[in-house]
Amino acid sequence: MKKIIDKVCFLITVFMAMFFLSGCANLDSQLTIDKQGNATLREKTLVSQELLNFADVNLNKRVAQINSSPDYTAERVQENSLVGIVITRKFQNIENNDISFEEFNLDDSVSTNLDSEKFVDVSKSFFITKYSINFNIDLGEDVDYVKTKFSIVIPVDAKDTNATNVNAKQHEYTWDITQPKQNISLTYEILNMTNILLCLIPVCTIFVIVFILLLFRLNRCKSLTKSCPLCGESINADAKKCIYCGELLDRGDNIH
Ligand SMILES: [Zn+2]
């Protein structure tokens, strides 16, 4: 009996593979992280109507089911001859709330490589916030049947990444998933401008105060000196005799 079940399963897989092989499934996921560290995960899955019928999936039901969950939005989409679903979920402050692939089609295929066991690790120092992303997409044999793409959009240039395509202008990093197990790795840093300004303001203030004090002192020194009418050297304002040339200055007619 088990053999028969196995055989049926095999046949279904072959059928599925045939549908997929005709280029009728694609998965396009995008993770967008803004400057404040809030993230949006969006996944678009497109399949042929035939595959949908074959797998007996009711798309409208699935859309309604996802939309009933407060964290997610889903909509039905159609592109050329393909139909599918776009699922979106927003994550506030990923320093404390890591992104999650739950309810997304990629959920079973992703696993993190970071020590923190998060998908996005955020480490904050006073001047810099560092974002590290490192996980695997493990599609196995499906990689041959499902055209899969993953992209990450960040607010600055990446410091280090193994993305296969880079759109530098949009800070968009894309991986065409062509390996059964593909690594997604990206790090970037954001300067904490508020803290930098907080440090710069007192430093600038001290600099300005020191500058004003120096100017004041210089003027005071000037007013305490005069030039010797004979040799031109700078001497004390109330000097009676020049220390440079020995000229007597107490006659009161040659002080400048
Ligand atoms: Zn003199």
Question: Which short descriptors sum up this protein?
Answer:
256 residues; five-stranded antiparallel β-sheet; 4 helices; rod-shaped
Q: Give the C-alpha Rg.
A: 36 Å
The ordered string of helix (H) and strand (E) elements is: HEEHHEEEEEEEEEEHEE
- What would the principal axes of the Cα set say about the shape? rod-shaped
Q: How confident is the prediction overall: mean pLDDT?
A: 86
Beta strand count: 14
Short description:
This protein has one domain (2-191). Helix content is 26%, strand content 36%.
Question: Can you walk through the features of this model?
Answer:
The protein is an alpha+beta fold and 256 residues long. It has one domain. 26% of the residues lie in helices and 36% in strands. It has helices spanning 2-21, 49-55, 59-67, 193-223; strands at 25-33, 39-48, 72-79, 82-91, 110-112, 120-124, 128-138, 147-153, 160-161, 165-167, 172-177, 181-191, 225-227, 234-236. The strands form three sheets. The chain has a seven-stranded mixed beta sheet. The longest helix is centred in the last third of the chain and has 31 residues, at 193-223. The N and C termini lie far apart (121 Å). The mean pLDDT is 86. Bound molecules: zinc ion (ZN).
Secondary structure layout plus pairing:
Blueprint: H1 2-21, E1 25-33, E2 39-48, H2 49-55, H3 59-67, E3 72-79, E4 82-91, E5 110-112, E6 120-124, E7 128-138, E8 147-153, E9 160-161, E10 165-167, E11 172-177, E12 181-191, H4 193-223, E13 225-227, E14 234-236
Parallel strand pairs: 1-8
Antiparallel strand pairs: 1-2, 2-4, 3-4, 5-7, 6-7, 7-12, 8-11, 9-12, 10-11, 13-14
The protein binds zinc ion.
Zinc ion (ZN) binds next to loops.
